[in-house]
Input
Amino acid sequence: MQTDEAQIRQVVQTWMDATRAGDTKTVLGLMTEDVVFLVTGRRPMIGKAAFAAAAATPPGAPRPQFDGASDIREIRVIGDHAYLWSELTVTVRPPGGAAPIVRTGHTLTIFRKEGGRWLLARDANMLATVNPQ
Output
């Protein structure tokens, strides 16, 4: 049986892998129903439905390609809650060959254990766009 920390690390890895693959269904399965995302310069995104809508690509439209790396700096488990601090880099390659957009910065994520599974419940990220060189 994996430790809580190992399970949380696996959630992060599964999230990254599913995002690269464009597998929104898997990503949605890694979050609580009442998930909240806090992003610099935008209103909070509240709930799975809001995330699904933001991640949706219109039928027949090409999907952007995502890549990234998460460097987990700290995980602390407190009962059925845990927090994670990481440095995250996300690269978005828009369809049609436009220049990639690279965002990097720190995140603070809160997980909640539900039904024996660790799920992302709150996420605050301070990613900033990296200027092209």
